[in-house]
Amino acid sequence: MAKAICCCRGTGLGTHGFVLYGDKAVEIDVAGVGSRDLSDIGICQCPEGIWVWEGEYEAHYLNPLDGGGIDGYYPTQGTFRLLTKEEWACVQMNENPFEER
Which three-class secondary structure state does DSSP give residue 79? Predict the structure, then answer.
């Protein structure tokens, strides 16, 4: 199961959200897409605030015939939950709680 800490401001069409931290799968996709924006990496419907997204994450893929541009993506399915005390502590220290230590 993939995990990401997501921050979102607003609801509806004016929503702006991004991934603050992610596990290895999410961070690889963020690097490949070149964006931390939730809509760019397929994590949608984030409530306003700071949340942990957990779910099945299928990475975007690059089309090498195009020279590497984004060709499409597989949809994500997941849920949002509150951060644990441990996750909050990592965020407050500017550390990724999902990195292997």
Answer: strand
